[in-house]
Amino acid sequence: MNQAHPDLPPDSQADARGWREGFQTGLPTLFGIGAWGMVVGVAMVKSGLTVAQASGMTLVAFAGSAQLASLPLIAAGAPIWVIFLTALVVNLRFVIFSALLGPHFSRLPLWQRFYLGYISGDVSIALFLQRYPIATVTPEPGKLAFLKGLMYPNWIAWQVGSLIGIFLGSTVPTEWQLGFAGTLAILCIMVPLIINSAALCGVAVAGVTAVLAHELPYKLGLLAAVIAGMATAMFFEESIAKRNRRSRIGHG
Amino acid sequence: MADWEIWIVILVLGVATACTRSAFWLIGHRVTIPPRVQEMLRYAPACALAAIVFPDMVLGPQGDVQLALANPKLIAGIAALLFYLWRRAMLQTIVFGMLVLTLLRVFHVFGNIG
Question: Rounded to two decimals, what is the model's pTM?
Answer without folding.
Answer: 0.73
